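User: Could you walk me through two proteins back to back? I'd like the raw sequence and the structure tokens for each, with a short line separating them so I can tell where one ends and the next begins.

Assistant: Of course. Protein one, sequence then structure:
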Amino acid sequence: MIKILFFGDIVGRPGRAAVKRFLEENKESIRPDLVIGNTDNLSSGRGPTVKKCDEMIEMGLDILTCGDHIWDQKEIIEVLQKKDGKLLRPDNYPDICPGRGVACVDVKGKPVLIVNLIGRVFTTEGLNSPFVALDKILEENKEKTVIVDFHAEASSEKVALVQDFKGRISAVIGTHAHMQTADEKIYADHTAFLGDAGFCGPHDSVIGVEPALSIKRFRSGIPLQFELAEGPTQVNAVLLEIDEKTGRAVKIERIFEVYE
């Protein structure tokens, strides 16, 4: 079996610290073969930076995925342009965008394909269809184990994607909403699914933000400079077990840890 540990959106310094603690305390007992983390909010909630990506790789993350905040830090383009870099951007951004949305990693002597996609409902304009993008990826790559990070707002879009591709890929893990859902299942005895992995960061917050600021925004409608909350932190993650011979998902388990 291949064990894959997937961290939901890692939000700022609190999220990075929580992931580090989780790995220090649990990596030996879990013994994952591959560690993936969504870094869309890695640097103060606004995309990844070069330094913060290096920090996550040093912690033990093998692949970093992203989402709609991928372009927030201009310096990240140099990371995306590295041929064998570990940072992915959603594959269904237009082809003129730098970077790649697919990585193939050797795990226990078997190729594992990691795909990063972004939804089009309530998100960014000008995106290509994630459904068409995944069709093309599967046509061009024959790996049996395929893990998809689908960074999307609408739960309907996430469920439609897994319904369309069930039996052809190993797992679809949703990110972006920062609220871990309880809908994990394995479709067609093959494809694992979780609507949203949640997030790693401030536990007593509004999806990572200081509650008072978020409440003020909702009450007034006036744009504010958000700040990340302090205090206890949380780790939201997913543990997958995949049959390396067939690519079939055998187990999906949600992880929710809180650190005082």
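----
Protein two, same layout:
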Amino acid sequence: MSRYTEEEQIALIKGWWQRNGMPLMLGVALAVAIIVGWQMWQKHQADRAAQLSATYQQLLQLTFTDEQIGLDEAHGLLTRLEELSADSAYTQYGRMTLARVAVEHERLEDAALQLRKVVEKPANEVLAELALQRLARVLVIQGQEQQALDLLNEAAIDSYQPAREELRGDIQLLLGQNEQALESYRRAATGAAGSPILQMKIDDLAGKDS
């Protein structure tokens, strides 16, 4: 049998509630808010990822199917990607797509600008390497061969080293640095899967040195 009367038990409950009720309710409210907020954030992230993917696919379809595509149309879709997430891989691939369109329109400064944005803050190392090599090619077209070579001196991931060394050799050849070009081609060949064109370059330069 309880040693408290009903009135005393009610008074004890009221006292406990006065001391602990507000913190308890706040704790429950905070927990609910965290759960709801997390679910909303996940939904927002999923929605944004879906929009990024759809916009990038639209940009790809536009640039690969419309031979008369203009830079304004491509810029519009890239702007949409940047608004959704400026640093996402989708946006950076979009910049590289726009760079390709710019080169086709002989807008080399525009192409270089987009590629530099990727090189300076890449979403991943593969994007960094691809953008860097494409930027080097644009610089060569602009007559900035030495700047292109300097760019290629930055660290490379191993799987892309052969392509980078072959590009380096091509640029050195343009500068009349035949011996250095031959060395670059040979380094490319040690990591490549036996490209016939690369071998022709090596044979041609080796024949000139003999």
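The chain is about 80% helix and 0% strand.

Let me know if you want the two compared in more detail.
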